[in-house]
Amino acid sequence: MIQKKVCMVGTFAVGKTSLVRQFVESVYSDKYHTTVGVKVDKKVVAVGEQDVTLVLWDIEGAETGHELRQSYLRGAAGYLLVADGTRPDTIANAEALQARAEATVGSVPFLLLLNKVDLGEHWRVDPEELARLRALNWLVITTSAKTGQGVDMAFATLAQKIMGD
Amino acid sequence: MELPPTIREFIDVLNEETLAPGYLLVSDGGDLLEWGGDLDAYNVTGLQAGKNAGEHIAFLNGLFPLEGQNMTLPRVQTRPGIFADIFIFRREAGIWILLLDATAEARRRSRLQQKAYDSSLHAADLERETEVLARVNSLLETRVKQRTLQLQQVVQQLERELAEKEQAERALRESQMRFLSLYDANIIGITFWDESGRLTEANGAFLDLIGYAREDLVAGGIHWDGIAGADEASDSNLAAELRDTFELRPSLRPFVRKDGSTVTLLFSAAPQKGSLRKMVCFALDISRYA
Fold it and tell me: Which has the least CB within 10 A, A11, A161, B109, B142?
């Protein structure tokens, strides 16, 4: 079976681990546990008529490109940039992390996930900033690891892009 | 570094005991050539020579062919609660992959990192709460301003109404004074009646006209039926008219005085303001001015 390495990249506490757990195990916990180093999971998804094993690298939070360890990214077929929609600084950080990822693995497919959309009253995504990122051809999806909103779609979309749509 | 063989040997044993080393040797393409050490500790099992390590071991996926001469993957969680530092380096025999236990270091980092991130998140929460409070405060200030403006408008309205009321009261007092002046001057007879026909108030001029004393009035002894004389010319009954209409245009009417004599008076009646069941009446003996 085809295996593709996918990295979860983003600032600390944006919900990378929760998104993976929701996607792989369909579970969610409100308690925040920091990720140290990297944790690797797998999940099989169907892309068209083909099954693909996504090897998910849940990488510890990094605020700047420099903090993102390149060796974790090596061999990635795609990556999910994760930001917290209630913390605008994590969206700004995503740009630096994307640049670092692209410098390491090249122009592989990626998506920006604006997570924690369930926290509606605290949502602080600047529409102009979002429009600017979309103008750069960034594909942006709002997600909630808590409710599951957008999660399966995000991983499926990335898998399709990795497999060449 | 030059070390005596005994020391070198001691370090080797120490490392073996504390770092639980495990290793793999793979070809440039990632095919398994050789393996050993404590790989079970890292959940690396079911190995077969010739199989591709990248396909069989998740954390090696996508790494082959190896870019460069070596690579380090620190603190990879290979099974729940177990972390390994993974060193990958190229040598003549192939690519070596060395796993050394990093669980203690990962736990130490986890504690520190959790503390630092919790503090950052707490600060972010506080910042958010401060912003929410500022928004609520701003909203309250706006509401207070609006309410203050409304209250000011109400106060102004009340002040206007109070001024109008004072003006009306002043006008009423002046009207009362004018009436009292007329009443007390005794130029014409003025009297008040209730709906039963009892005379409740009268000035001296009216009492003189009908020949009664003030004591009679106070005792309640003056009644309409007793003083309204019969008008034989018009065949009208003054008492009945007044009882029905509480109003009478000025006309000459006979009245019976206390001593039984009759006097004709120019008489008119009107309902008392504010009480339709009471009358104020005016009477004048025009024969005195003939």
Answer: B142
- Enter the CATH code of domain A2-162: 3.40.50.300
Q: Residue B233: what pLDDT?
A: 62
Residues A58, A38: contact at Cβ < 8 Å?
A: yes
pLDDT per position as a tens digit, B143-196: 999 999 999 999 999 999 999 999 999 999 999 899 889 888 888 999 998 888
User: Which residues lie across from A142 on neighbouring strands?
Assistant: A114
Secondary element (H or E) of residue A9: strand A2-10
Candidates 3.30.420.10, 3.30.450.20, 1.20.120.1200, 3.40.50.2300; correct CATH number of B184-289? 3.30.450.20
Q: Is A125 helix (H, G, I), strand (E, B) or coil?
A: coil
Residue contact A33–B114, C-beta within 8 A: yes
Long-range contact pairs involving B151-158 (C-beta distance under 8 Å, separation at least 24): none
Closest approach of B4 to chain A, Cα-based (Å): 36
For residues B99 and A37, the answer to whether their CB atoms sit within 8 Å is no
The CATH architecture that domain B5-108 belongs to is: 2-Layer Sandwich (3.30)
**Chain B residues close to A71, C-beta within 8 Å:** 71-73
- Using a 10 angstrom Cβ sphere, with 0-12 exposed, 13-18 middle and 19 or more buried, the burial of residue B237 is middle
